[in-house]
Design a protein that fits this description.
The chain is of the alpha/beta class. The protein has a single domain (15-252), classed as Metal-dependent hydrolases (TIM Barrel, Alpha-Beta Barrel), CATH 3.20.20. Helix content is 24%, strand content 21%. It is built from seven helices and eleven strands. It has a nine-stranded mixed sheet with strand order 9-8-7-4-3-2-1-10-11, with helices on both faces. The chain has a two-stranded antiparallel ribbon with strand order 5-6. Helix 1 (33-42) crosses helix 2.
Length: 253
């Protein structure tokens, strides 16, 4: 008997795999779960990933809002290493993201000061405020970059070096190169970079597939750029194959 996936058709999934919510202290208050889904539909996105700073506490609400409106939402987060390098983690299941969150919280010092860094709002799928996170989510963990990438892989997720073209909090700005022994699944360029970026500016990055995503902190930035994946379904396994251009899957930026 053919498996269910063999009966599906390969199709294009328009994806923005780096979106923040109002939980991120630098995120706008309009970035509530339902607001994000409404804008994603307006921008004709099929798949999004929620990647707040060092936390996944709003992911479940966005997933529920997405399920109601027909947008696939992958759970994730953007982790800051002790080297102050930002790394995107993306998973299939909410439980994987919450396991990652528990690991990160054990290594994240400090308390937030809303007056200095901004409010960190926990919201439900209807954009109702349910609480506030008091951890210093904007801060760096005490985990090394390799430790973070290895733990993402251990939990079954995808890892991307965030916005490698930026002058702050990128693997290039902080280390000067992408370490050859790091187990990243890919690298991300921001909406400010051309997809055909100059490899000479990003030592060590050429060996990795790259995606482009919005890193949206404001509603109007959602879907500003996207990556199109040719997949059977929007899962981590399928995206990993597309990154490797294996089994007929591939991607375009």
């Amino acid at each position: 008997m053919a498996s269910s996936i063999e009966n599906k058709t390969l199709r294009a999934f328009k994806a923005d795999l780096h979106i923040h919510t109002c939980l991120s202290p630098c995120g706008d208050w309009e970035m509530g779960p339902m607001g994000i889904i409404t804008k994603s539909l307006e921008m004709d996105l099929d798949v999004i990933a929620i990647c707040d700073h060092n936390s996944a506490e709003n992911v479940g609400a966005v997933m529920r809002a997405g399920a109601e409106k027909g947008v696939s939402v992958l759970p994730g987060m953007e982790v800051c290493s002790k080297e102050e390098v930002h790394v995107i983690a993306i998973f299939d299941e909410l439980s994987q993201a919450t396991d990652m969150q528990e690991y990160i919280y054990d290594h994240l010092p400090g308390q937030n000061s809303p007056d200095l860094f901004g409010y960190q709002v926990i919201a439900d799928e209807n954009n109702e405020v349910r609480g506030e996170n008091n951890r210093l989510l904007i801060g760096a963990t005490d985990l090394g970059l390799h430790e973070i990438v290895n733990h993402i892989r251990f939990l079954g997720g995808l890892s991307f070096a965030s916005h490698i073209d930026r002058q702050a909090f990128s693997i290039i700005s902080q280390l000067g190169f992408v370490p050859p022994d790091i187990g990243l699944d890919g690298v991300e360029v921001s909406s400010f970079a051309k997809p055909e970026y100059d490899d000479r500016k990003f030592p060590g990055a050429a060996k990795f597939p790259f995606i482009t995503s919005s890193d949206a902190h404001f509603i109007d930035d959602i879907g500003k750029v996207r990556t199109v994946f040719m997949l059977f379904e929007p899962t981590v396994t399928e995206i990993r194959m597309a990154l490797k251009r294996s089994h007929g899957r591939y991607m375009e930026v």
